[in-house]
Amino acid sequence: MGALYDSMSKSLDDRGIKKLLSSKAKYQTWLDVEAALAQAQGELGVIPKEAAETIVQKAKVENLDFIKMDEIYRKVGHGFVPFLKVFVLACGEESGKYIHYGATTQNIQQTSQNLVAKQIHAQFLAFTKDILNNLATLAEQEADSVMAGRTHGKHAIPITYGYKVAVWISEILLSVERMQEVEKRVFTTMMGGAVGAFNSTGEIGIAVQERVAEILEMPAMMIPSRNISSPKIEYINCIALLANNLHKIAEEIFQTSIEEFGEVSEGFSKGTVGSSTMPHKINPKLSKGMIANAQKLYSLTSVGYYSAARPFEADSTSNMLFDGIVTEAMELMTEILIRAEELTRTLTIHRERLAQNADMNKGLDNSEYIMMFFAQRIGKDKAHELVYELAIESELTKQNYRDVLLANEDVRTAFTEDELLEMLKPENYTGLASQLAKEVAQKCREVVAQL
User: In terms of domains, do 191 and 121 share one?
Assistant: First the structure.
């Protein structure tokens, strides 16, 4: 089982990623790598040039006899040999004998998986680019939408929704930086033979590997060992961090769309059904799918760490596991990204409810504002003590915070009633929230333009 799907999965555009993860695409990339190997060997005189040309020409999935391949699978019990045998048949006896010359199964399969991953990675970045553009628009639109900032699940001091979005943007930009940085280590080519030491090819094998790398536009591994798995773990970690950024957004939208908050809601189309028993239900379907798939994705890195430590020069148990978890990670990430793009593009912000919730405590959230005024006169510690006592009195006695403040002689001396009322308004104590939202949105657009 790969990604976790629901009814939303069928209605969202994966932009061709799922086709890249299909069996047909897998066989085609095996052919692409075999063709690149033959081309490189033909150019360097390892195999006849005419044979190389035929191999490249015939390296199309429609030339494979899958019925014959299945028959051979049942006989030989090997995951790659049946593919090779039908490809040899497709190329003819003379050219076919030069297929897979000096390479081993994992050379082709791991390079192939990296080739597929590179294509999917490009789509991941394209999705992320669109998500960032969506968020930049949201940050600009909601730069001045006042809301309650929250720490430890409780009201802290006021912010704006645009500022909240700017925080999301800044973290996703870090993930984009990581995703670009790992490309040179993850999407690589290996053609070193059985144990990676070029035993069957010698010096020319290194030249062949370099040429294959050029053809596939993926750098060659320094040592093409089949037992090096850290780049795969790094990549799963990398996309898991991006998934975590998007998971955070989904969690907040999921919770603040609850009726008691009512601050946001997912985009909704008439006719969508939320429950088979409760006709009124409009559920956060995009968010829930992001949350579930992200949680599953996190588990894959730890599995990879255990398997990467297998001993010796190669181990099929590790190869099998990484074939599975890399594919699964990409499937999970796809589901997260397609939902995140839709969610960030269609999210509805309920500004009146944001403002209502921000003023729920009738100015209590602006206690720091009052405290900082007094701190200039009596010092921070004494100011904190004074305002703390008044705030707690309001909480315990359930009195209006404004009335408690005005009953205090120090406060009455420092402010007029009108001045105090202005200081208690959430919109008058949002710091640089609006400015930061706009600046980050602009920075985001600049970065995205370079992707």
Answer: yes
